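Hi there,

I know you've been waiting on this one. I reran it after we fixed the sequence typo, so this is the corrected version. Both the input and the resulting structure follow.
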Amino acid sequence: MRSGMVTEERGRLNNYAIEPKMYTADESQFGFNKGSELLNGRLAMIGFVALIALEVLTGHGVLGVLANL
């Protein structure tokens, strides 16, 4: 075995990813921190794409869909 590479019985080479070092902060974080801002931005992007897909599939915007329910 050499630096993360293993050969199977049939001679095939397996390349395993090297696990990154974990970092944990000892102090508690609350409010506007980097992690919460990243999550909020990613959820906003998913919501925006979902609204565009809804409009493309139905032909109406969100208010139009809600009005027809």
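Quick highlight: Residues 5-67 form one domain.

Best,
R. S.
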